[in-house]
Give the backbone structure.
Amino acid sequence: MPAPYSYDLRQKVIDAIELDGMPKTEASPVFHVSRNTINLWLQRKAQTGDFLPKPNHPPGNNHKITDWQKFKAFAQEHGDKTAAQMAELWDDDISPRTISRALKKIGFTRKKTYGYQERDEQQREEFIAQIEQMEPQEVVYLNEAGMNSQDSDYPYGYCEEGQRFHALKSGKRQGRVSSIISQGG
């Protein structure tokens, strides 16, 4: 956007028209300003009492998140939500994209370590204790690789960079394709 005419030039043109009685059609070529511009200056003077240029606010980011400590606490509390869900929970009207940019700005990434809701920690500990008592040749190692149809249904999670967000997912399987490999000890 071009710079506005200086206030001095505006003053000279308006003084020539109002004080000296110069017609606008003559003032236009003398000061190298269009007649429409002179009309706009006179109109602004009639409305506001002065002919100052309108303040030029260049377009920029209208950051709606200004309290970064509050947002960081919010992100830690609601880290298990998607950006769209976080945008709905935020106090002001804000877009999910703004939430994503803000999470990146405070150093939060989307990483999650999953566990299963159905797991029983006591059974796991008993199983580990049982394996530790076995002889190495009695142990059979299994490696299972597979893909669930629900892999895309994993919940989101945001946390500080370098840390992992822990969450639970359903262990109920639907349409799993698996391959199992075993090796004896």
About this structure: The two ends are 76 Å apart (CA to CA). Residues 68-184 form one domain. Residues 116 and 171 are 5 Å apart (CA to CA). The chain has two domains: 7-48, 68-184.
